[in-house]
Task: inverse folding
């Protein structure tokens, strides 16, 4: 009997020890690669760091500056090639699918089922966070790119009203110019220019055209007169930037609008995160309008935390991160600060400002009405190689290396074809 008890006790102790050892070995740290380095972005990230700290997870930051994330994605590629995966990385759309196809992503399906993500996350996001039936990423938000961000005081000073057509917008920019204000705040970097061009194409050609050209890569649409007209419009609008726009970071362009040095920026709603960080209020300090001619449609992107196939001792941290990210309270608190809207359909809009409430309502309407389209500039229209080819052609046009809309269309068709 004594012997039996002893043996049992030994086994019990050994088992308890093993469990303790496994628990102790769990890495209580989240290593996150991201490009959220502006004031508004950092403030939003702090919400997540705070939530994880409450659960006892340390934050190991891997920031790679550069809006749009091209530099971050180069850094990620190097890490993955070296086999040193972060717990998670900020990623956009098709990039998630590329890494999943390469077999380096983890599997969060168990957490997803437990948390009911398939019911709360919109299908447009599931398309990019589920691969081969497995959840490989946790969507953080939904951003939308077809917005104008306007300084209200400047707008009042020049007697401007909401532009309802592209021609109205040009007339408004003229007014600002005549008043001695920089009309258009733009950072001359390829991703910013292409993000603005997404809106111009939707405005010029309408929803069906945008979808065919930039989501389906339909060649007839890409080489059409409508695409040519879109480049004509781009050529017109960039006449209103200041001479120092080349290479400027997007948040510095936003700061020009916040300070009243410029009238308007055409940018995704991460720009609103900068207004919020500067303690500015919609309708009092700034105005958010849909890019003229795009009302009723939403061009979206969503930041996802791509979850890699990390060693077992890091899986608990990954689950904690994913669970925190998709919790309803985080979805509200984070997106209020970030300028985006929730990646779940069941989060109340109570805490959002007027632009956020509009963003949530617009997303729902576009989703219901079939006018929700992936941003080609932001990795949701086509795989990265195509998006890069697109950004390259747009920036060459903006900076004068392509000299006509005819040539731009020709090069766009060829570049996309080569990249496919
Ligand atoms: C986008 C991203 C946003 C914001 C922006 C500027 O690609 O989705 O969250 O970070 O870049 O950095």
Result:
């Amino acid at each position: 009997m004594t012997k039996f008890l002893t043996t049992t006790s030994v086994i019990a102790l050994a088992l308890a020890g093993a469990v303790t050892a496994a628990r102790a070995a769990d890495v209580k740290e989240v290593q996150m690669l991201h490009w959220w380095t502006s004031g508004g972005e950092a403030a939003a990230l702090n919400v997540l760091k705070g939530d994880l700290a409450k659960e006892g997870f340390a934050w190991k930051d891997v920031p790679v500056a550069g809006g749009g994330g091209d530099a971050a994605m180069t850094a990620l590629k190097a890490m993955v090639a070296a086999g040193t995966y972060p717990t998670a990385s900020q990623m956009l759309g098709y990039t998630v699918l590329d890494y999943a196809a390469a077999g380096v992503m983890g599997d969060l399906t168990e957490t997803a089922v437990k948390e009911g993500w398939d019911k709360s996350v919109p299908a447009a996001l599931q398309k990019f966070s589920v691969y081969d039936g497995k959840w490989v990423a946790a969507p953080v938000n939904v951003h939308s790119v077809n917005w104008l961000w306007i300084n209200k005081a400047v707008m009042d000073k020049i007697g401007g009203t909401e532009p309802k057509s592209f021609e109205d917008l040009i007339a408004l920019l003229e007014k600002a110019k005549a008043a001695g204000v920089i009309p258009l705040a733009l950072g001359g970097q390829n991703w910013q220019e292409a993000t603005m061009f997404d809106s111009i194409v939707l405005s010029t050609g309408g929803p069906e055209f945008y979808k065919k050209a930039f989501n389906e890569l339909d060649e007839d649409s890409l080489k059409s007169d409508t695409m040519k007209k879109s480049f004509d419009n781009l050529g017109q609008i960039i006449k209103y930037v200041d001479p120092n726009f080349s290479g400027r970071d997007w948040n510095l362009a936003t700061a020009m609008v916040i300070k009243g040095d410029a009238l308007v920026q055409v940018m995704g709603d991460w720009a609103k995160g900068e207004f919020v960080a500067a303690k500015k209020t919609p309708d009092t300090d700034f105005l958010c309008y849909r890019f003229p001619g795009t009302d009723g449609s939403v061009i979206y992107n969503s930041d996802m935390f791509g979850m890699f196939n990390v060693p077992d001792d890091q899986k608990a941290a990954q689950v904690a991160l994913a669970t925190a990210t998709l919790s309803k309270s985080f979805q509200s608190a984070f997106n209020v600060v970030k300028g985006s809207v929730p990646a779940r359909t069941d989060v109340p809009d109570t805490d959002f400002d007027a632009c956020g409430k509009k963003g949530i309502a617009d997303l729902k309407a576009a989703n219901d009405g079939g006018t929700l389209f992936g941003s080609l500039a932001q990795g949701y229209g086509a795989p990265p190689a195509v998006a890069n080819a697109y950004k390259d052609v747009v920036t060459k046009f903006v900076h004068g290396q392509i000299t006509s809309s005819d040539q731009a269309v020709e090069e766009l068709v060829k570049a996309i074809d080569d990249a496919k």
Summary: Confidence is low (pLDDT under 50) at residues 1-22. Residues 35-36, 41, 67-69, 92, 143, 250, 270, 301, 303, 378 surround beta-D-galactopyranose (CB under 6 Å).
